[in-house]
Design a protein that fits this description.
two-stranded parallel sheet; Rossmann fold; about 90 residues; mainly alpha; globular; 2 strands
Amino acid sequence: MELVQGCRTKQELKVIKDFIKSNIFAVIHPDGKVSEKAILLLERYAFSDGLRAIDALTAATALANSIPLATANHKHFNKIQNLSVIKFVP
């Protein structure tokens, strides 16, 4: 979701899909555990770092499942402790 949201053209979307095919092995949807973690992240990072709800859900999903987060907008996530980020350059 994070990667697709940043697409500006169909060509960029194709690049993203190819990247996902090569690097992402499962799509994980948020559940109660992820929602609770997202709320904690918002409480910790919203005021100090401007973390928004969708980014909190994305980061919480990665953290709750002990997996890296792939994003082209790594500045939204670089202060979140214990979060492994794969930097995607479109």
